[in-house]
Every structure is written in C-alpha cells, then in structure tokens.
Design goal:
Length: 353
C-alpha cells in the first residue's frame, strides 16, 4: 500500500472538516437549545477519532491487532489527573510533554515484551497488560479506586500573564481538539508515505520477506507501537480534560473493543477511515440509545452488517465506489485478452507448418 488515494478522498474530507469546523455557526440554528450538548458530543467524536487513528497505525498499517490499546488512553487521562495541582490549573506547556513522555516510556516497556509475539498471542498479551493496569488503578488509593480522580481545572495555555487559549470555553476547547486531530492526521499521513511507512507496509504484507531483505522488523514494529501509544495517550488526556475526571473504565478492554469497532466501521489501514468510523459509531450509539435499552444488540448487528457488506469500511466506499468496482473486472479481462493476442506478423503454434 502506497496510501495514495483518489482526489475525491481529499475533497470529501476537507468538506467534512469545514462542516465540523463551522458548527458554532450553524449548530444553534439547527439544534436550538441542544446545540451546546451537540457541541460536547462533537468534541468527544473528535477525541475518539484521534484515538482510533492511533490504533489504525498498529492494526491497519502494521497488522498488529491490539485489545489493550485503552491502556495508553487511560494512562494519558490518569497522568493529567494525578499531575495536575489540586487548586490551580496546570500548564499545558509542560503537561502535554509529560503525558507524551510517560506514555512513550510505558509503550516502550510494554512493546519490548509484546512485540515478540504474533497473531492471537499478541492480542492476548496486549489485553493482559491493559487489564493489569486496569485492576491496579481500580484498587489503588492514590488513583481514587473505582471512583477515579477528578480534575478541577483544565490546563491553561499562557505566556507570562497572558492567556493564549481559554480551555474552559467549550468552543475554544473544541477547536483545540480539532486542531490536535488534524495535526495527528497530517503526521500519520506523512509517516505512512515515508520510507518508514513503506517498511511497515512490507511487514504487514510479508514480515519474513522483509527480514530476508535485512530489515530489523522488530525495531520498526516497536517504534510504531510507541508512536501509537503516545497518540492514544494524547487522546486520553483530551478526554479527561473534557469530562474533568479519569476513570478506570477508560483503561478497560471494553474501551479497546469499542475503538476497534470504529476501525472496522470506518476502514482499516486508511488513516482517514478511523475518523469516519469514530463519527459514525458515536452517531449510531446516540441513535440506538434513544431507541431502545437493548441498544448493544442493534450496535452488534450493525458491526456484523458492516463486516459483511463493507469489508473495507466506509473508507472503501469512497476509495472504490460500487459503480467503479463493477468496471474493474471488465478492464482487467480486456487487458488479459489483449495480452493473449499475438502481435501481427508472428506465428502461433497452430499456424506453423
């Protein structure tokens, strides 16, 4: 995979980005008194989209399916909660690097142990590490136990006495999260199209062949694991900033399963697909929860239908629409027929005397 998509992908994503970015202009007119609540849900979708993109680097690009990715999501939330002052706002200038450093160290330690495994063993070991931290936090007094830790103030962005961003304002925080999502997408887009990303694609397709060519595949996978963990921790920090607490549920396997379903729904290995999947999943979740108390059944049926009908997710519909796919076999068949026709003036076996 070279991750070069048709121009319509960029056009559609830019249009969707513009629609989301100008929500404060059209949201109140469309939703009225519910516009603030919708803005909060939209901010959550943006955060989860960043979380889903981080997992796509492992699952879709490298081919390592993880069921413990919530470990880093929750770790980012707890780092913010435990490092923040009790009666004052922390500075984002040092909080963000701290979250990235803690998550990078944790991802490096965990990655060194799990990267040696493959397939179902990788899934189970990542799940085990995630659950170990979950039970540790759930029973630790310093982490608030099952109640979690509350964050009284969101980190501020100031230079001297001047506040550059007022994170307590919902609109400012929404645009900050949207900017982090765009920055994460551009970074992963650059990474997957770089030489490093091409090696990751080769590992995904055939790791043994890459090893035969002299690549230290373990090192490449470890770096990808660390990058993925850091991005997930940033998303967890943003989630804790939005709701004002860090909870053990953010570390549980249910969270890892939900973000994996977002990948399936949006399309793995595309970088932009997880963004669409996160938005689609949260919209469906909101609709199903208001339809029936048995919404998990509807969500499960939706994911099964998506796997059967859309094996490449929503992104597959954009990259290769059905009306274009029907033309591909015809073109390929014509190319094969043309290849079998000998050039004029040549003799075939049947025409020889």
């Amino acid at each position: 995979m070279l991750h070069r998509y048709p121009k319509r992908v960029a056009v559609i994503m830019l249009v969707l980005l513009a629609i989301v970015a100008i929500y404060p202009l059209w949201g109140p007119a469309l939703f009225g008194s519910q516009s603030d609540f919708i803005l909060e849900k939209l901010t959550l979708m943006v955060i989860l989209a960043l979380f889903a993109m981080s997992l796509d680097l492992l699952v879709g690009i490298v081919g390592l399916v993880s069921l413990g990715h919530a470990l880093f999501f929750g770790l980012g939330a707890y780092t913010l909660a435990l490092a923040s002052p009790d009666f004052d706002a922390a500075s984002l200038w040092w909080m963000l690097p701290l979250v990235m450093l803690v998550s990078a160290v944790a991802a490096l330690v965990v990655g060194l142990l799990v990267i040696r495994t493959k397939g179902i063993y990788f899934i189970m070991t990542t799940l085990a590490f995630g659950q170990m931290l979950y039970y540790l936090v759930s029973t630790a007094p310093f982490a608030g136990g099952t109640d979690g830790v509350f964050i009284m103030f969101r980190p501020d962005v100031t230079v001297g006495e001047t506040a550059l961003l007022d994170m307590s304002d919902p609109h400012t925080f929404f645009y900050f999260c949207l900017g982090m999502l765009v920055a994460g997408f551009l970074f992963l887009r650059w990474l997957t199209r770089s030489y490093f990303g091409q090696v990751l694609d080769g590992i995904h397709d055939n790791e043994h062949r890459m090893q035969a060519l002299g690549y230290a595949t373990g090192g490449y996978k470890l770096v990808a694991f660390v990058i993925s963990g850091v991005l997930a921790a940033i998303a967890g920090m943003l989630a804790a900033m939005q709701y004002g607490f860090a909870n053990p549920a953010q570390l549980g396997w249910h969270t890892s399963g939900e973000v994996l379903m977002m990948l399936i729904l949006g399309g793995m290995g595309t970088i932009f697909g997880p963004i669409l999947g996160a938005f689609a999943y949260e919209i469906l979740l909101y609709v199903y929860e208001h339809l029936t108390m048995h919404w998990p059944i509807l969500m499960g049926l939706t994911i099964i239908a998506a796997v059967l009908v859309l094996p490449r997710g929503i992104a597959g519909l954009i990259i290769a629409p059905p009306w274009r796919r029907r033309q591909v076999p015809v073109v390929e068949e014509a190319a094969v027929d043309a290849a079998e026709i000998p050039p004029s003036g040549t003799k075939t076996k049947e025409s020889r005397p």
